[in-house]
Amino acid sequence: MTFRSGNPVVDRYIAEDYESVRGMSSRFAATICAHVIRRQSDLGIEGHFAEIGTFEGRFFIAMALGLGPTEKALGIDTFDWPDAGLIDRFHRHCARLGLDEERYITIKAAARDLPPDDVAMALGGPVRFWHIDGDHTPKSLSADLDLAVQSLHPKGILCLDDMLHPGYPLLIAALQAWLDRHPEMRVLAVIDREDIVAAAKVMICREDAIDLYGQDLVDTFPAHHWKLGADWGDYFAVVLTPKPRLATVE
């Protein structure tokens, strides 16, 4: 592979066991996100990881394995789809792949029904990396963002899954409306899709934290940097893609 997070434990899991956990997140996106978590650790940014829409734990395990010894991972899911056995499969995957129960917490609920204090109480501190992969409706996305931003570390990341997905075109409109209400936040990077399943992610952070991550992503993944960038109106965000290229005209 031409991409690695730099954390040997995470990279081994992504290379050898990632697809043994049922899910739709790609190795490419997981590697970049795990690198950001490692970058945060290198910068002394401490906090937890939280995910809305944990499913069987494919992406969750990768991020949790990259945390420090005193940090925890929180998985929020109704754990009732496609069947009631989902939560048991999730716990089995965690145990099988080296994530013991002292390192993570689950909340079996819809994120939109959670008071913000529940997240803070469960973790006892800020979240430095949020992954939002819940109900794919504009209303739910806005609610999930409102929940997540209240516990976000000042230098933390909000990562949204399935953005720019052809099956959920209204999500990007909901994101832009949310950004308009939160001018302190901006898009850091777009992690391009690989196929109809492994869809694009968008990473967001506070404007004053952009310099902590943007150039580092470009420098770390030069072979995957699409140099034109993502045009968000009054600024450009980094674009990382498996095959950075322009369309050809024949």
Automatic annotation (TrEMBL):
It comes from the Bacteria. The lineage of its organism: Bacteria, Pseudomonadati, Pseudomonadota, Alphaproteobacteria, Hyphomicrobiales. Pfam families: Methyltransf_24. This is Class I SAM-dependent methyltransferase.
